[in-house]
Amino acid sequence: MASKYNLIDYDPEEERDKDPNGAPLDNLISAADYMRDLLCTHGVKFAVMGGFAMLCHGSSRTTRDIDIVVDASMSRLWQLLEPEPR
């Protein structure tokens, strides 16, 4: 079972210093595909927003994450995410 993230340790300054442009685009695309498949499988409505959404529409902006808004409670999201391998 996956452990819960500590948001303070999630994106430390040391990681930002190592790669100021963020994660490779292929990693972000893989993460977005994974989340899309998981949410669609469980019938959770969602939308991608922010910098990653802008990239998908042709922007040259860099981003470090994928912003997803979901139509589900946090407890429902934990039910879906905790059993998933990392």
TrEMBL record:
Pfam families: AbiEii. Residues 1-24 are annotated as: Disordered. It comes from the Eukaryota. This is Uncharacterized protein. It comes from Uncinocarpus reesii (strain UAMH 1704). The lineage of its organism: Eukaryota, Fungi, Dikarya, Ascomycota, Pezizomycotina.
